[in-house]
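Q: Here's a chain of 401 amino acids. Please give me its 3D structure as tokens.
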Amino acid sequence: MRFVDRLNCYFAYKVTKKNTNLQKILKKNCLFQKNVVPLHKYCVINSTNMAKTPISSLGEFGLIRHLTDRLPKVQPSTLYGVGDDAAVMRHGDRCTLVTTDLLLEGIHFNLEYVPLRHLGYKAVAVNVSDICAMNAVPTQITIGLGVSSRFAVEDLEDFYAGARAACEHYHVDLVGGDTCASMNGLTIAITCIGEAEEKDIVYRNGAKVNDLICVTGNLGAAYLGLQLLERELRTFRATQHGNLKEVQTDDAIHEKFEGREYLLERQLRPEARVDIVEALRKAGIKPTAMMDISDGLSSELFHICTQSKVGCDIYEDKLPVDYQSAALADEMNLNVVTCALNGGEDYELLFTCDIHDYEKLVPLDDVYIIGHITEGNTLRLIPRSGEPFPLTAQGWNAFEQ
């Protein structure tokens, strides 16, 4: 038995022995091993002899479902909990929306090419995007940082300068947070708060058969910006270690990025589409389902279709792709359609609309109809050749090995 297992047994004996209410809660939530009596001899399940399930076998969203599927709602103000871009609480005649994102160095960002000022801006923007995905207005954020000793005060000033710039741009207030020492790297936890009337909130589960599928902006640019940065970082490392005879000068590096500034900006400093939420409202359009594209279009379509219990057809020739994305994909021997479907980090909005809203959608700038919702549960891509094939969710998986 491990040391932590012995402590758990001590907890079971000391803390719960005289607390019958806690005993019931722990039993109900299966925190104690069964078939051991009396209660003070129960031990919290954490034995090294038990078979362990790799987190990667569930994936990020499977893990969330596994951990939260038995969580009850005990507060009448809680309208919607786990399962969408933000939780929803009713307060008076309006609703409050809350979303939290965790960004980890080495997983979500690489400080070898991500400036801290850009990172601060992006960290705020991606959380604001979650509130936009609920058809709501962002109002406040909090920032939590775990900081290792390799960072100086000036580094954190740069991060907060970017965060403040994003707050000013999106008209949100930075109202609190926490900062703590970390053993290694940089950890960022941001909570964004928004508000909306209950009737205006859009969830992922409202798509209906024959609804139009729309996206904003263009897809794949952020992923290709990442590929460009990673390629040039590999080249830079090789020259630093003497593996390449050619020495990379600043001018040579700048030349590699010349004409590709848009791709770099989409990766390093994405924008939340607050403008689209306002445009839809002015046009009198309320989407039937919506979410932002963080993990890739194919993954987000899977979430909407699964929660709405429908299928979809999307058309390859309708996917919006920027010319810089197409050019770099060709140079790097990448399929630009695959980048658009699976790249992720676009932070554009994916939404469905009633087909009767078609005439209202057409005049909107930067909104593209890419397909429609179908019966059943099959997601299909219709290529230019016309022969459909199944669309699978191959976007970002935080726990993929």
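Q: Can you summarize the key feature?
A: The longest helix spans residues 221-240.
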